[in-house]
Amino acid sequence: MAIRGGYRPHILRVDLGAGSIEREPLPDEEVLRKYVGSAGLGLYFLLRDAPPTALPTDPDAPLIFMVGPLTGTPAVNSSDWTTICYNLLIPYSAGIGHGHGFWGAYLKLAGHEGIYLTGAAETPCYLWIDDDHVELRDASHLWGLDTRETERRLKIELGDEENISVACIGPAGEAGLPGAMVKADRNHGSGKGSPGAVMGSKNLKAIAIRGTGVVPLANGQGVVDAAAEWEENLFLGGTGQDAPSALGLQNGGITRNYHDRLGIPMRVAAKNMTDPAWGTEFARKYVEACARWRITSRPSYNCKIECAYDVEITDGPMSGFVGSPCGGAENMEGSCAIIGVDDPATVVVMTDFFDGMGLESGQFGTILGAMYEAYEDGILTLEDTDGLDLSWGNWESAMELVRMAIRKEGIGAKLTNGVKAMPEALGAEKGLVEQMRSKVLDIKGEGVVMHDHRQFWSVFFGEIISGAGPAIQGQGIDLARRPDLGYSEATPEIPRNQNEAVSKVDVVRETQYAKMFCDSLGVCNFGMQGVPESLRLSSECLAQAVGWDDFDMDEAKVVGERVTNLMRLVYGRRGFTKEDELDVSAKHLEPPPVGPSAGQSIEPYLPAMVDEYYRLMGWDIDTGMPTPETLERLGMNEFAGNAGLIL
Question: What is the rounded distance in angstroms from the CA atom of residue 389 to the CA atom of residue 175?
Answer without folding.
Answer: 24
